[in-house]
Amino acid sequence: MEFKNYNRIKEEILLFQEHHKRKISLIAVSKKQSIEKIHRLINYGHLDFGENYVQEGVDKIKSISNPSIIWHFIGPIQSNKTKLITEYFNWVHSVDRLKIYDRIKNEANSLGKKINFLIQINISKENTKSGININDLDAILDGIDPNDDFVCFRGIMAIPRNTTNINLLKTEFSLLNKAFISLKERFHTVDTLSMGMSNDYLLAMNHGSTMIRVGSKIFGERI
Ligand SMILES: *Cc1c(COP(=O)(O)O)cnc(C)c1O
Questions:
Q1: Could you tell me if 76 and 95 are in contact, meaning their C-beta atoms sit under 8 angstroms apart?
Q2: Which site in 20, 38, 98, 149 is 20 to 30 Å from 3, CA atoms measured?
Q3: Which of 27, 52, 130 to mutate to test the pocket of ligand 1 (most atoms within 8 A of CB)?
Q4: Which atom of ligand 1 is nearest to the CA of 159?
Q5: In this structure, which residue's CA is closest to atom 4 in ligand 1?
Q6: Best substitution site from 26, 77, 197 to test ligand 1's pocket, by max atoms within 8 Å of Cβ?
Q7: What stretches of the chain show up as alpha helix (H) in DSSP?
Q8: The Cα angle at residue 122 between residues 140 and 117, in degrees rounded to 5
Q9: How far is the CA of 212 from the centre of ligand 1 (A)?
Q10: What is the C-alpha to C-alpha distance for residues 129 and 158, in angstroms, rounded to an integer?
Q11: pLDDT tens for residues 84-126?
Q12: Please, which residues have CB within 8 angstroms of residue 77's CB and are 6 or more apart in sequence?
């Protein structure tokens, strides 16, 4: 792993922030990447990492055992895994039903641990993808307690269609940004729009993203 791409992304973020006065955070997606590569990026100063698979993520978190690292769970969630996720991660990007929210809330409250969460939206409506239909957002919001001491609603996450059609991508990013803007008006805790990956993070940033999740462009191909 070279730090060339990482440095370039950080540079692009800095330039963007100066121009647009909007903060962007970078999550290094370390799923299927070695512990050794993660350690190298930590030693280089990076603190936010994203993992998709509960067991793989928990094993890495235990092995790295560094309380300064902020771990983001970004994969699909089975309800019997909410306990492990709450215990080991700091952010959950992929809440897609109230049952998952309720379980995380109960577990965070009993551990006395702060969890930030996002609702995942299936913006392309492909049935291979997790997340709720954007039209069902209101139904799930009615079940969320914006004043919970431990579980904090921060916004939305999405993975757009895997396509090179820029216009389709722009349409999906714009719909997400619109939903994000109206959520910010309704919930004082909402400040995060998690969208943009290795191939589309610049486009996502130009459409309102505040958090990008980049894996292969930083670490190289997954094993
Ligand atoms: C794998 C993954 C990423 C990173 O993808 P890259 O194309 O490697 O940057 C980002 N977000 C989610 C939810 C992922 O599953």
A1: no
A2: 20
A3: 52
A4: 13
A5: 215
A6: 197
A7: 4-20, 35-43, 54-64, 82-88, 98-111, 137-141, 166-186, 201-206, 216-219
A8: 50
A9: 9
A10: 10
A11: 999 999 999 999 999 999 999 999 999 999 999 999 999 999 9
A12: 85, 92, 94, 95, 96, 100, 130
State the Cα–Cα distance between residues 186 and 52, nearest whole angstrom. 29
* 132-146 confidence digits (pLDDT tens): 999 999 999 999 999
Residue 190 and residue 70: Cα distance in Å, rounded?
A: 19
Round to whole Å and give the CA distance between 57 and 190: 26
Token pair of 52, please?
């998709």
Burial of 57 (C-beta count, 10 Å sphere; 0-12/13-18/19+): buried
pLDDT digits (tens, 9 = 90+) for 50-62: 999 999 999 999 9
pTM for this entry: 0.97
H-helix or E-strand spanning residue 47: none
Which atom of ligand 1 approaches the CA of 217 most closely? 9
pLDDT value of residue 1? 67
How far is ligand 1, taken at its centre, from the CA of residue 216, in Å? Answer: 8
* Residue 132: per-residue pLDDT: 97
Q: Is 216 in the pocket of ligand 1 (CB under 6 A)?
A: yes
All domains of the chain in start order, with CATH:
4-219 (3.20.20.10)
